[in-house]
Amino acid sequence: MNIQMNIPVQEKLEILSDAAKYDVACTSSGVDRNNDGKGLGSCIAPGICHAFSADGRCISLLKILFTNECVFDCQYCLNRKSNDVRRASFTPDEVCDLTMGFYKRNYIEGLFLSSGILVSPNYTMELIYQTVKKLREEHHFQGYIHVKAIPGADQGLIDKTGYLVDRMSINLELPTAEGLKKLAPHKTRKTILKPMRQIQSTITTNKNEVAIFRHAPKYVPAGQSTQMIIGATNENDYQIVKVAESLYQGFDLKRVFYSAFVNVNQDSNLPALQSGPPLLREHRLYQADWLLRFYGFKSDELLSEERPNFNTLLDPKCDWALRHLELFPIEINKADYHTLLRIPGIGTKSAMRIVQARRMASLEFSDLKKIGVVLKRALYFITCNGRMMYPTKIEEDYIFRNLLHVEEKVPILENGINYKQLNLFEDWGGQQYDNLFMRG
To answer: What value does the mean pLDDT of the chain take?
Structure first.
């Protein structure tokens, strides 16, 4: 085993937890792993990474790289082989001891394990497999485990690991094959998409087996996700959203994560980023992602080749509504659920409440406020019993100016920036998104 044994575990933990900070593809929504009474931990529909579970609990996990050694030289990566950084690697036993130690101290409820490529993809994947196998079978850990599968590793290794973990992800790295060729020429879209396809196929087959044989082992029960770096190459928002849409449709992904490019290396092929990482762009992409996943929008509705980038001043849903004023105003007491979702200020939960409440009585604006509709946005696009809330012009410039005054303010960060990069310690659920990112 090519692992340094002379570095204290605490020092390895400092190196490898810091090395994992740029990987944001970490969430566990949608999986139940019950404790069978023989082991430690459980995974009952949790949100991991300092996320909020269904009952409001904030849950965290240990997030580390197995190693920051790497045989590849991706120009955007801090851990590329040509960089002079402190290197370290865990052993499977060290990862197990850390995970169990933190769990018993009630610090974590799960593990997120990624890795650089040590020696080869197969060698690294074997180490990851041995680690989770020890956790499950020797330490009887039944909490949440998310691992990064290694592109290029044998599918048999990936499959064996998939039966032991809750979620698996493979980083797409960059939105297009051209960008990958430019900044990571040793990687190809084929080597990344092939295991994603195989994981998807095995998940589907396994679901059918579990439906017939209830006690059959589950394969990646929380599904798979991926991550794209945004801003390292020159793709526009339309290209990125189209890629995400195709991944959701073609690979049944649970989540696509967007990571604003942080320039950690000096390289002529990388953008200078004089104004810092493109965090607002990342923010708009997450908003659009929610529209694709939960609101019934298509990428071609949000952007086009003629209009390839999002409006930085408005969220994508408001921007879409302003470009389709011929559809408004919409009568709240008659519109179906899917039409209600198109209205700025109305989220998934408030739309469902409207549908349920109007079975009992005709709704007025005061009722909508109690339901949770953000009337400061919605009033320009709706009527109640044929009347608007105030005399309002259905005119783009007029509504645009007024919406700018009520644009939801997110917490102010450094230098007055009021948006931030999604990171490991946030997994925004649908309602949090309605309340903060979208307000409908």
So the answer is: 86
Distance of CA 185 to the CA centre of its chain: 26
What is the predicted pLDDT for the residue at 356? 97
Q: Beta strand pairing status for 43-44 and 32-33?
A: antiparallel
Provide the 3-class DSSP secondary structure of residue 141.
strand
Residues contacting residue 421 through CB under 8 Å, at least 6 positions apart: 24, 259, 260, 277, 279, 282
Q: Which CATH architecture has domain 9-263?
A: Alpha-Beta Barrel (3.20)
Q: What is the residue whose two structure tokens read 């997120």? A: 112
Domain extents for the chain? 9-263, 316-407
For the whole model, what pTM was predicted? 0.84
Whole-angstrom distance, CA of residue 105 vs CA of residue 112: 18
Phi, psi (deg, nearest 5) at residue 236: -90, 175
Q: Is the peptide bond before 329 cis (omega within 30 degrees of 0)?
A: yes
Residues ≥6 apart with Cβ < 8 Å to 265: 75, 76, 77, 78, 80, 83
Burial of 2 (0-12, 13-18, 19+ CB in 10 A): exposed
Q: Once rounded to an integer, what is the mean pLDDT over residues 82-108?
A: 93
Proportion of the chain above pLDDT 70, given as a percent: 83
The whole-number average pLDDT for the span 331-355 is 97
Q: In degrees to the nearest 10, what's the CA dihedral of 17, 20, 23, 27?
A: -30
What are the DSSP calls for 285-308, one per residue? HHHHHHHHHHS---HHHH--SSS-
